[in-house]
Design brief:
Pur operon repressor; globular; 284 residues; 35% helix; single chain; 2 domains; WH-like_DNA-bd_sf; Rossmann fold; Pur/Pyrimidine_PRTase; Arc Repressor Mutant, subunit A; 12 strands; transcription regulation; alpha/beta
């Protein structure tokens, strides 16, 4: 039990809630932790709720009754999300990011923890009202996005590998066709990594035709698992609808025309903003 001044208690309660997102916390937990009356704790939670919602950092849901409590749902306001994505679009349009073959350099962006935290918060906001058991991605560039998203949803990460690793035991492997190169690749997932009939959020850093993500979806069928949603950081628009293997997904950025001669490309906010999609909500 800690005896803290109210200001210090508010800070620590806020940190505790943010460290345990999507988790129902009984009021007695705080009352016993700080040696305070439930009425005082309720007043503190009211202040935290007001600040979080006014700043657009999240929602604090309450459930009345003996089995009730509070649950913090991380959020990113649509305005803040669009502001950050537009900044990223401008950064990606820099000519020095152009690589041979029409590719571009993205690794430095994926290596920024603070930025990935915000990207994860965006995906967590979009899929907050979905029933999800875990977040899945394929190695390697999708890993920072998957962990950031899972942290805000308080869920485990499932990692699909290109090659089987003996330390993971028996695994399920499938072949899939790359939508961009039309070549056959292999992906594998340890049998112990995913429970049967799980509901899975699939995320990745980049999608052209959707071959890799479609491969993950096919792999999930081997576990009788369900795709609860698909999120990609960047999608390419240099493929036709007929070439696209995936149509139900959320993208944060979209690469349009690429001129390899002048090293110019168009990067705009993704379909999340085109569709005017509402960020998810969850009832406690």
């Amino acid at each position: 039990m800690k005896k803290l001044k109210r200001s210090a208690r508010l800070v620590e309660m806020t940190q505790y809630l943010m460290s345990n997102p999507h988790t129902l916390i009984p009021l007695t937990t705080f009352a016993e932790r700080y040696g305070a009356a439930k009425s005082s704790i309720s007043e503190d939670l009211g202040i935290i709720k007001e600040v979080c919602e006014s700043e657009g950092t999240g929602e604090l849901l309450t459930l009345a009754g003996a089995a009730g409590g509070v649950k913090f749902i991380p959020k990113c306001s649509k305005e803040r999300a669009l502001e950050l994505i537009e900044e990223l679009c401008n950064e990606l349009q820099q000519p020095d990011r152009m690589l041979p073959g029409g590719y571009y350099y993205l690794t430095d962006i994926l290596g920024q923890p603070g930025l990935m935290n915000e990207i994860g918060r965006m995906f967590a906001s979009v899929f907050a009202d979905h029933e999800i058991d875990c977040v899945m991605t394929v190695e390697t560039k999708g890993i920072p996005i998957a962990y950031a998203t899972a942290a805000h949803l308080n869920l485990p990460v499932v990692l699909v590998r290109r090659d089987h690793v003996v330390t993971e035991g028996s695994a399920v492997s499938i072949n899939y066709v790359s939508g961009s190169q039309k070549s056959i690749h292999t992906m594998t997932l340890a049998r112990r990594a995913l429970k049967e009939r799980s509901r899975v959020l699939v995320v990745d850093d980049f999608m052209r035709a959707g071959g890799t993500i479609n491969g993950m979806i096919e792999l999930l069928k081997e576990f009788n698992a369900t795709v609860a949603g698909v999120g990609v950081l960047v999608e390419s628009k240099d493929v036709t609808n007929d070439e696209r293997l995936l149509h139900d997904y959320v993208s944060l950025m979209r690469v349009g025309t690429i001129d390899t001669r002048t090293r110019q490309m168009s990067v705009k906010p993704g379909n999340l903003f085109d569709k005017n999609m509402e960020f998810g909500t969850e009832e406690a």
